[in-house]
Design a protein that fits this description.
Length: 495
């Protein structure tokens, strides 16, 4: 039985481990942290439970398909609630609730721009086609050769897929009202670039948002991690937590050993047949491999367009709030200016947009009785210097004041727990390249075969999975990334 070492237990690592174990490999996962999940870890403090990373559950079909591959269902592990409204947008001077029911959404669009509901139908018909081809075909390609895209459906629909049109132009073709445009552009921010630099193929995200809906696993997003970890254990995967990988030793073009240190400071030497890098790709390349065994130069990495980093706050209140939703987007600042501060002239933003998740609106078990659990997120450029406590406090005071003004409710004096988390934490906890939170931006020149390869160019039995390789950033793509790399290992290395 061939032995596999998976480095990292985020969503991609867990997915790869499950598919490889199912195929008959002996799989061991090495994880630096004390439990599974990577960036999707859980924080428990003072009676509050926080998801530390991903907080949106979109594309429920991808999660269902993952568990179905093992003869399981999501409902066998966790319960889902569909959020209605899906989320709220705070504009300057007013709010917009996005209803889960399509007919109500059409009415909302009409109230902003007469005739726009019919154009929304057309827009979503195109988006549905892109979702079907994109999620069922394109994202499952390993990105190892251009010949993978010699596919009848892909070639036939290449113009309908809008690969060479950008998202901003595409949205403007259908909607004229600036707030409707911004609403339709917002989902691609998850992909790590401005709408003018993201292919319009990704209007498939609007289909995911509007037609497939926004959901929440009762107990938090960490329930997905627990489910995947449980499934992996059921499949025979071994997990070694508090285990920090130090080096991959290579001889004759093959990874011969993986050296790791555990929390008892004991050094362990693993001798796998195959290694899967599910930790940060750049870290594995530049810190675990010798220079001669790296596929990419530092110059190459520094030319990559990164998705944003994050400035996060986990906040516990000693009171309940009125008239708030599970998800809220504060678009009460200039979208264009903040976007430039992230992507074009990287700097700490002057007046940032931000996002708030209050999970206790849906699940009161996430906080002590009578309390509220809050998660604030400000997107910032990756790689910024000067991530200090004083800077974090300045931004926190700004967004809390705006939250209070937008909701008409004071929270500053009711904070009983607070923790901040940003670029320096992403680097120290996850070895994150430039402290990024979401990986590599899905620009046209960083799509498919133009992403860092899932297979090492120098080490024959070393493969990669996760948000710096195919298919890209986000939780559903990470599940798929693990499946894709497992498929390539089975194909190239044999069972």
């Amino acid at each position: 039985m061939k032995k596999v070492i998976v480095i990292g237990s985020g969503f991609a690592g867990l997915s790869a481990a499950c598919f490889l174990a199912k195929a008959g490999y002996s799989v061991t996962v090495l994880e630096k942290q004390s439990g599974p999940g990577g960036r999707a870890r859980q924080l428990k403090a003072d009676g509050f439970t926080f998801d530390m990373g991903p907080s949106w559950y979109w594309m429920p079909d991808v999660f269902e398909r993952f568990f179905n591959c093992f003869g399981k269902t999501t409902s066998g592990y966790y319960q889902l609630k569909r959020l209605d409204p899906s989320y709220r947008v705070y504009w300057p001077g007013h709010t917009m609730d996005i209803p889960a029911h399509y007919e109500q959404l059409q009415q909302l669009f009409e109230s902003y721009e007469p005739g726009s509901s019919a154009r929304l139908d057309q827009f979503l018909a195109e988006a549905a086609y892109k979702y079907e081809v994109g999620m069922n075909k394109l994202v499952h390609k390993p990105g190892l050769s251009a010949t993978e895209f010699i596919d009848g459906d892909v070639i036939k629909g290449v113009f309908r897929l809008d690969v060479f049109t950008n998202m901003k132009k595409h949205v403007a073709k259908y909607f004229k009202h600036p707030q409707l445009q911004q609403l339709m552009e917002f989902p691609v921010l998850f992909l790590g670039a401005l709408p003018q630099h993201i292919p319009a193929l990704y209007s498939l995200m609007n289909y995911a948002d509007i037609q497939l809906g926004t959901w929440f696993p009762v107990g938090g997003m960490y329930k997905i991690v627990e489910a995947m970890h449980q499934l992996a254990v059921e499949l025979g995967v071994e997990f070694h937590f508090n285990t920090d990988v130090q080096k991959i030793e290579v001889a004759n073009g093959k990874a011969k050993s993986v050296i790791a240190v555990n929390d008892q400071l004991t050094t362990n030497n693993y001798h796998p047949d195959i290694v899967v890098g599910a930790a940060d790709y750049h870290f594995i390349e530049t810190k675990l491999l010798s220079n001669t065994n790296r596929s990419y130069t530092e110059t190459y990495w520094n030319k990559r367009v990164m998705a944003p980093g994050c400035l996060l706050y986990y906040v516990g209140l000693n009171k309940k709030l009125d008239n708030v939703l599970h998800h809220s987007l504060f678009f009460d600042a200039d979208f264009g200016v903040h976007g430039k501060e992230i992507y074009e002239q990287p700097q700490w933003p002057v007046h940032p947009l931000f996002y708030v998740s209050i999970t206790t609106v849906t699940d009161e078990s996430q906080a002590p009785e009578g309390c509220e659990n809050m998660f604030f997120l400000i997107p910032v450029a990756a790689g910024l210097e000067g991530d200090t406590e004083a800077l974090r406090e300045k931004y926190f005071n700004d967004i809390v004041a705006r939250f209070e003004a937008g909701t008409g409710q004071a929270i500053k004096e009711n904070i009983m727990y607070k923790k901040s988390y940003s670029i320096s934490d992403f680097v120290s906890d996850y070895n994150s390249f430039k402290g990024n939170a979401y990986g590599l931006a899905n620009t046209l020149l960083q799509t498919a075969i133009m992403k860092p390869s899932i297979k090492s160019k120098k080490v024959n039995n070393l493969f990669y999975t996760g948000q710096l390789t195919v298919p890209g950033p986000g939780v559903p793509p990470s599940l798929i990334s693990g499946e894709v790399v497992a498929g390539q290992i089975i194909k190239q290395m044999g069972r």
